[in-house]
Every structure is written in structure tokens, then in C-alpha cells.
Amino acid sequence: MNYARFLTAVSAARKPSAIRLLTELQQRSPPSLISLAGGAPNPNTFPFQSATVRVKGGQDVVLDEALMKRALQYSGSYGIPELVSWMKDLQKSLHNPPTADYSPERGQMEMCVTTGSQEGLCKIFEMLVNPGDNVLLDAPTYSGTLAALQPLGCNIMNVPSDQHGMIPGDLRKVLARWDPTDAQKPDCTVPRVLYTIPNGGNPTGASMTYERKQEVYELARIYDMLIIEDDPYYFLQFEKPWAPTFLSMDVDGRVLRTDSFSKILSSGLRIGFVTGPKPLVDRVVLHIQASTMHTSTFTQIIVSQLLQNWGRAGFLTHIDGVIEFYRSQRNAMLSSADRWLRDVAEWHPPMAGMFLWIKLKDIKDTQRLIMERALEKEVLLVPGGVFNIISSDPCPYVRAAFSLSTPQQIDEAFRRLADLIKDAA
Ligand SMILES: Cc1ncc(COP(=O)(O)O)c(C=O)c1O
Fold first, then answer.
1. How far is the CA of 236 from the centre of ligand 1 (A)?
2. Ligand 1 within 6 A of 260 CB?
3. Mean of the pLDDT values across residues 103-122?
4. Closest ligand 1 atom to 263 CA
5. Are 400 and 388 in contact (CB under 8 A)?
6. Most exposed of 21, 28, 30, 110 (fewest Cβ within 10 Å)?
């Protein structure tokens, strides 16, 4: 793949930071190395000494004095080596990416840690999206993606979708206006980037089937597009076996995947990952070098220690418990929806994630209903318009999260919502 053709002028102009390279070097050197090179502060002057983080039903995470000093210090921009290597092993075991054994130039699988997957996405867009570029996605979509993309001045093109995600036949129709051979020409307008949330989509709850992913991947090959697979709900899939990912079918090295620990370990620790072809992940790291420098060493060490203590089996057992919780929450929400909303709304049961996407039957736009009237009834949902490319377009949907409220609260919320809808009709 010719990765250079995908880079924005900003990204192409980014140069490795000499100081950051030294930090990476130092991170891999033996303790006997005497370095007068770095500009790092002396951690002996820091007020924190050690910490013990109690872990529910497991071994505590202990930061003794030496580890604490490391946790409080600058670290490499790819992420601390033990976390990156743990995650690489996990990615390989879950997705078996064809690129794992490629040469770097051919798009060998590489990874870096990001401050939540949001940082990864934002940097990926900054790397790939020029003003005026056509970018494909299936709206409604995550508002954080729209927030990162829209100010870049690109032209976001919607690909129709349903409860199984992006519809390949419609993608084919959207792409039909271009000749695939034009993709390699400079200044061509063929989209170079396709973004999608393949599991438990935010806000729709939609999950894409393997067959659809295969068709979309084939179209990406024909038009030489990169696929951004934003998959923070991957670990919240309710049914096993989990659907194969775009990363797992990426024979060309054209998939950039973002993972997140926000929904399974902690959203506040801000740990996410970018996985993709080395030439592009290396560029994401250049963007990181110039902004945050690296994700907090402290949080990386806590997470990494936890993962080392658990091992992969312990991690997956933890995930099973999280899934169990969200599955029962989803079921509670579905039965409350059935009880209160059957006559006034429609929905599809989500197979992953934490959202139910509800279409109100006789309401053209939920914006006013929610923003002006719902609070009076003491119930709050997200009006669907905020997830549209043009947020002022009328939208009959609302997004309900089943993550935080108890089944009793969910039931009462839907009773109030039903009242609200009947009053508005
Ligand atoms: C689809 C999607 N992508 C990315 C994110 C960002 O997650 P984080 O930055 O916490 O990893 C979210 C958060 O809700 C999301 O729903």
C-alpha cells in the first residue's frame, strides 16, 4: 500500500521529536546506562511515595517506591512496553491479523496506547482528513466522531445502515459515482477513509455481521480506502462467538482499529489503543509526541500491573462478568420498553453495547420533546438529532442508556416517557 497518499499535509510535515526518541531508547536500556540526555525531572522531589490499589476479588496492584517513581515519570509515546506487548498478544489471539507477520513497509500490525480511544480517533482524523475530502460513515453516529471530524472541513457522506450496521449494497451505490482507477490519481475526490462502529453502535446499538464486513472490506480494496474500525463495545458483545473484526480480515494493511478500556476497566483512567499498519501507527505516534507526549504513565502502570496479575484468562473472566451485567440490564430495558412503549415506539434489541435506539412513532423530531418537556416529567434521554451529520435535521429517535440506572429506574423512566409521548401526540 502507498500509505503516503493517505496523509494530510499536517501529518506529512510532522517530524519525530529527537528528545522523544531518546526517551524510547532509554526505556529499552539496562539500568546501568548513565543518561545525561533527558530533560526529565528528578522523581525524588515528587511528594508521592507508594500506593496500593485494592482490586475486587483479586490481587492488589502494588506500586512500591521504585515502581511509583517510574509511574510518575515521562515515558515513551507508544505506551509503556509491557502494556503494549500485553495488548499486542491479546490482539493477535483475538483477531489473528494477517498483517502480524508482514514487513513494516507492507503494513505490519503495530499498536500504540492512547488517552482513551477518543484521542486515537482524533489523531487518526488529523492524520488522514484534509479539508474538502469525502469521508464515508454510517450516520447516525457517535457525536465525538462528528465533533472531531466536522471542524476539519471535510464532506461527510452518509452510507445508509440498519440494525446490522452499514449496508454494503448502499455503500456500493454511494461509491458508484467514482471510477476506482481514479483513486490513485492526485487530487482525486474518491473517498480515502471509511469510518464505522461495528459493534453495539453508539447511538444505534447496531452490530455488523461478518458477511457485511467482508463486502465492505472488498469495496475498500476496490476503491483503495482505509477503514477506521472504532470498536469500544467489542468486549460488550452479548453473544459468543464474537463477530470477526475488520482487523482479522485485513490482508492489505488498510484497517486502523481503535479499542478502549473505558467500558470494561475504567473510563476515567483514559486508556485506549490504536492498532493498524506500522507506517500509519508510527504517524499517529508523531501526533501524540506533539501533543500529550504519552498517555499518563501512572494509569498505564496500574492497568498493566492489573493485567499481568490477571493474565489473559483472568482478563477474559472479568469481561464475562461485565457482559453478564450489561446483558441483564439490556433485558430489563427491553422488557420495560415492551411494557410501556409498545404502542408508541419501535426498536431493535441491541446485541452489544449499552444503548437502545428508540423511534417514537408519531413524533417527527425529539429535540423539543426532550429538551423542553422531558425535564418536567423528570426523565432524560438523548434526542437522536445530535448523532446526525446535520444535527438540526428532524429526527424521531431517542437514545436510552442501560448502563447506569437500575431496572426499577429504567422501568419508571419508560413509564414517564410513555406519558410524555401521549401528552405530545
Ligand atoms: C463509538 C465510540 N467511540 C469512541 C468513544 C470514546 O471512548 P474513550 O475515549 O472513552 O475510549 C466512545 C465513547 O463513548 C464511543 O461510544
1. 13
2. yes
3. 98
4. 10
5. no
6. 30
Task: Give the pLDDT of residue 142.
Answer: 96
Average pLDDT, the chain: 96
Output the CA–CA distances (angstroms, integers) from residue 303 to 115, 268, 269, 274, 357, in the order listed.
13, 12, 9, 16, 32
Cell output for 365: 423530531
Alpha helix stretches (DSSP H) within 341-404: 366-368
Cβ atoms < 10 Å from Cβ of 161: 23
| Position in ligand 1 atom list of the atom nearest CA 115 | 9
Tens-digit pLDDT profile for residues 234-268: 999 999 999 999 999 999 999 999 999 999 999 99
Taking the C-alpha atoms of residue 32 and residue 268, their distance in angstroms, rounded to an integer, is 36
Q: How many CB atoms lie within 10 A of CB 242?
A: 15
DSSP for 176-236 reads: TTS-GGGGGSTT--S--EEEE--SS-TTT-----HHHHHHHHHHHHHTT-EEEEE-TTGGG
Whether residue 20 has pLDDT greater than 80: no
Task: Give per-residue pLDDT as tens, 318-343.
Answer: 999 999 999 999 999 999 999 999 99
